[in-house]
Amino acid sequence: MRERISVIIPVYNSERFLAEAIQSVLVQTLPPDEIIVVDDGSTDNSAALVAEMPLPSMTELILVRQPNLGPAAARNRGVALASGELLAFLDADDIWLPDKLEQQVAHLARNSAADGVICRVESFVELGGRWPPGRNRTLFEQNPPMYIFSTLLIRRDALNRAGYLDVQLRAGEDTEWFARARDLGLVFDITPAVLLRRRFHSANLSHSAAAATPIQLLHIVRDSLHRRRYEA
User: Which region, left, alpha or beta, applies to residue 13 given φ > 0 means left and ψ of -120 to 50 means alpha?
Assistant: First the structure.
């Protein structure tokens, strides 16, 4: 009997893209057991869209709502509610390729030393949009692997060892968590295939918070150095 898989989708005013994101989970060649959508204080029709979605019988869709506390808090809420031994995440404006879960679950089954697995990413710009300034287009067009939560499948016990995301961060929370997890000894493998399509659009939270990112990165590096020095 395979391990249960929970998929966590944080949502904030994402009605334009949310149905496509959820659909990319529902059509997985290895369907998850549950999808937990955490509406982080949306003021649009995101929650209503989730409530109206038709579902296949093998997948449960759980919708929870909370005040706007940020993506880290939304993911943490989903983790707390999840029943799966394997946890996967998807941002509401991104899209999984159909065999994302199947490939990553098989990879973890073959590699017992790995705590989690990420994948390569194809980035694209929404129709009518433009490439975001400050983003290295040449690098992104190579479909690199990315340490972001939308690429991640992780064993539940490994996430528990690393701890939840830092709710004080409204951007860069992925980077901080992966740095902390690796400092604690968690091992992440990379599947070679592109399994995530990441959308750039005008409302991306990372765009609006770009000015603060260098300072946050400095703090993340500093904290990582402190952890390593302490453990040494």
Answer: left
